[in-house]
User: What shape does this take?
Amino acid sequence: MLLELTNPQIQQAIIALSALSAIGVMLVVGWPWIARDRLAERIQTIEGNRHQLRRREQSGSGAVGGARSLLFAKKPNRVFVGIVERLSLARLTDESGATQLLRMAGLHGRAPLVAYLASRLIAAIAMPGIAFAYLVFVLKPDLSLPLMAVVASAGAAIGFALPKLYVRNLISKRHNSLRRSWPDALDLLLICVESGMSSESAFRKVAEEIGTQSKELAEEMSLTTAELAYLSDRRQAYENLGTRTGLDSIKATVIGLIQSEKYGTSLGQTLRVLAKESRDFRMAAAEKKAASLPPKLTVPMILFFLPVLFAVIATPAVLQAIGAS
Assistant: This one.
């Protein structure tokens, strides 16, 4: 009697266990299709975006490709090329230093370098003639020949230095624009990175958005995006950004990007700290500039405001004294 009761139960248990085993086997086999690997899909998406960005850069389309083509499409002037090559100005001067100086001014390619080297020679030759003509035909002084030679030498030195002064003026204006906009660019870069965008996509997006505030910074970030697509070493692209700009705040960000690429540290936390430091530095620079205004205004007030004030105060008394006499 007991065996008759337990036999169906054993059979039902065996059937249930077989069904569960079949379901388990089906789940094990079909699990990769049921629960997909989101990390692998994300990596494939990033790689696809990277290849798509590289193709866009190579075809010259888009904002970054257009900026790059505009920067490097200019050809050197034939006259300047002839002067530089025949006189070997590139060998006589520090070509690497001149190239770095022009890059910091936003002048890229060979055409600005050739024009810079040739203009220094042309100005050094032309300025003594201009100074001599001005002295002889305008001032007409009675100067001796040695003194005229000194004036001509001074004119040559001034002419040789004028192109460099012009380039340094461009660098100063460019640095001011980069300092003002860099904290905002870091905030945008932080938002893009924390939203899951890759470095290339983040730099490209920030370059498109920051252009209305600073064209210079948009140009630098566009060049960095292009170099990230072209160069095999991403570290070199980041280092080129710090070298081109020459600003300590941007170099600090470059170090953070390189460390994040090398050691896998949190890029978002690094960008957050750097953005705060950049804003504090910008505020400190503004406060320093505001604190320097009173000493600068002292001399203009003494020369222009105080005489007028004394005249307004003393004129009625002088008129009354003249009328009483």
The chain has a mean pLDDT of 76. The radius of gyration is 35 Å. Residues 177-291 form one domain.
